[in-house]
């Protein structure tokens, strides 16, 4: 989780958007794949960025899983607020918050589903 936290902080608080050097690649992708816009790529990237948070929190706090979503929301709000206050080149967005929390939710669902699958497989092997 520590490595993920450092990576998240670097991405979130980098002085300029982390995809600024990928402009040519992003333009090629959006021209090549119909319907895939920059906004959709960014939204999907934010979802993927927070999946590890949901997974990590779900594994670290198995009895407190109900806190995964509020923690993800607070982390995302903190990131967006810091970007608004301290990083002029970054643009905070409600869409980022929605995507981030959705990613954490997906991570939580992955863990719950995997553990349920393991439990069912174990029960099947005992029969």
From TrEMBL:
Keywords assigned by UniProt, alphabetized: Membrane, Transmembrane, Transmembrane helix
Record domain VanZ-like: where: 3-112
Record bears the keyword Membrane: yes
Transmembrane segments: 38-60, 67-88, 94-114
InterPro entries reported for this sequence: Teicoplanin_resist-assoc, VanZ-like
Pfam assignment, any one: VanZ
Superkingdom in the source lineage: Bacteria
Presence of keyword Transmembrane: yes
Protein name in UniProt: VanZ-like domain-containing protein
Source organism of the structure: Microbacterium esteraromaticum
Record lineage: Bacteria, Bacillati, Actinomycetota, Actinomycetes, Micrococcales
């Amino acid at each position: 989780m520590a490595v993920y936290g450092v990576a998240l902080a670097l991405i979130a608080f980098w002085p300029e958007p982390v995809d600024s050097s990928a402009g040519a690649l992003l333009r090629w992708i959006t021209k090549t794949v119909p319907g895939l816009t920059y906004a959709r790529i960014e939204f999907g990237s934010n979802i993927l960025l927070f999946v590890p948070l949901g997974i990590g929190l779900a594994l670290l706090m198995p009895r407190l899983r109900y806190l995964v979503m509020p923690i993800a929301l607070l982390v995302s709000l903190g990131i967006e607020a810091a970007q608004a206050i301290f990083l002029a080149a970054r643009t905070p967005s409600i869409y980022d918050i929605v995507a981030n929390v959705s990613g954490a939710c997906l991570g939580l669902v992955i863990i719950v589903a995997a553990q349920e699958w393991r439990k069912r497989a174990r029960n099947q092997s005992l029969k």
